[in-house]
Amino acid sequence: MTPEELAAFTAELIDRYYSPGSLTEPEREVARNTLISAVRDGTASRQLIETVIDQVTRVLPDKVSARLRNREQFSLDVEQHGRINAHAARDADGRWIVGFDKAMISTLYGVARTMSARISSESPLCESCGRSDCRTPSVARTARRMLEYGLRGVWFGDCGAEDWPLTYDQMRMADAVAREAETFVFAHEVGHQLLDHPSAPQGNPAARDVRVRYVSETTVKPVHGAAENIELHADMLASGILLDSVVERLAANGISEIKPGYLAASVYGAETFFAVSELLDRCQGENPESRSPRSGTKVHPNNNWRRSFTEIVWENKLSGAGVAYERLSRSWRSVIDACWATLAAPSEHDVMVWWQDWLAADAAVRSALAQLEEESAPPDEIIAQAAQARARGSQLLFDRAAMGQFTANPMIPATLLAVRVVRCPLDVLRTVDPTRPVLGLADLVFASQARESPFVRLAEDFPD
Fold first, then answer.
1. Residue 195 phi, psi (nearest 5)
2. Alpha-carbon distance 438 to 432, whole Å?
3. What pLDDT, in 10s, does the model give residues 58-103?
4. pLDDT band at 132, cuts 50/70/90?
5. Which residues is 89 bridged to in the sheet?
6. DSSP characters for 291-349?
7. Is there a contact between 368 and 417 (Cβ–Cβ < 8 Å)?
8. pTM greater than 0.90
9. What is the DSSP secondary structure assignment for residue 433, as one 8-state letter?
């Protein structure tokens, strides 16, 4: 789906849901961007990556571009596997295959959206007390949202897609950053193909000592190396493709002088990908700092190494671009670092906003149960309203509150709400204790063990 086709598609949706003339032009634009955000997380995941493919092929050698456009030589796999991941492989006929988990696409957008809500605000308010002059400003709500996007990718549930309002500029930034992050990921996987890396599963000993036999028109040179070095080489190639893509798009718009601000979305996109890789580690109970190109225990190196190599490639390709990357990434990383620090050791100020979120989730659950018990409206209508209330807040805490009510009183209303609305795995919900100061969030990120449990559908446990 091209940008024009996506615009036409969302315009058609707007016409379906809003009567003609009911929206001003600015309101219509906001509605269009909102729908694009929803589409990114839904059925159009493949079309979005197809747009990224077109963006990448424009800057690759003709032979490579032709291959990526030829469905007999290249295959794109976009599926829901329940893991934040992307991969490169080859089939028996030598066809290149690049796979994306839909969770990767939605998590990249979720983190971009979460960060955009902070970065694009001139005077970010403290998320606890709501003051711009707070001496200890909290980012606890941003930390929770980012965490829940990661948890959704690790589990087979759908917790984490909180639908909080964004300004038009914030929405545009989130969409641009997510697109650049997706471009980086796709270019990384194509990099494995271009460098003729083995398509064995990552971590396989057979992948740890190979000779790169083919190099495209890049500065990357063939080397012997462990799997970590292979990943760094794919990163380097992806970094070059990402920068070339930005320069090409600017040139298409008549811009030849590259100013640092023009690179912002791409810098934020690469950093969003690095943040998501760390998010995946943490949500599986792993320490991302344990990654090292020399450790031999992890396939992907840590983000400091990946960032350094990206800066080097950018500087070699375009004078000043590496310096711009380092400077531009600081504000983006500062919020992410603050989120991890908050989850690891929250202050009383941070706990306040989590407690507010818990009270809101609990109130929404109690309201839905009261309506079901009073039969104030058709059950389907009440359930639909409860699902909307869940989407507007912390889905993890909503599900915890709903299951708490069911455990205390497993009557028909509570059972109906649990079966029809709750989506988080039961074993995880039991670890989220709303009575503890940090609501159990830090335990999930910094003290948990890798979780391999499948998505638990409550419908299997309870009759309709």
1. -90, 5
2. 9
3. 899 888 999 999 989 998 888 776 566 788 888 888 889 998 887 7
4. confident
5. 97
6. --TTTSS-SSPPHHHHHHHHHHHHHHHSTTHHHHHHHHHHHHHHHHHHHHHHHHS--HH
7. yes
8. no
9. -
In Å, how far are 33, 86, 188, 197, 315 from 185, measured between CA atoms?
23, 7, 5, 16, 20
Instruction: Give the pLDDT confidence score for residue 212 in this predicted structure.
Output: 29
- What span, in angstroms and rounded, lies between the C-alpha atoms of 59 and 48? 18
Q: Apex CA 392: angle with CA 389 and CA 397, to 5°?
A: 80
Place of tokens 């609501």: 439
CA distance 464 to 460: 9
**Portion of the chain with pLDDT greater than 70, in percent:** 70
Cα(235)–Cα(223) distance, integer angstroms: 15
Which structure tokens are listed for 110? 């979720």
Strand partners, 74: 96
Q: Which domains does the chain have, with CATH numbers?
A: 41-120+167-341 (3.40.390), 348-460 (no CATH)
Which residue carries 């066809």 as its tokens?
95
The single-letter code of the amino acid at 429 is L
Q: State the amino acid at position 28 in one-letter form.
A: R
Q: What is the pLDDT of residues 136-145, one digit of tens each?
A: 899 999 998 8
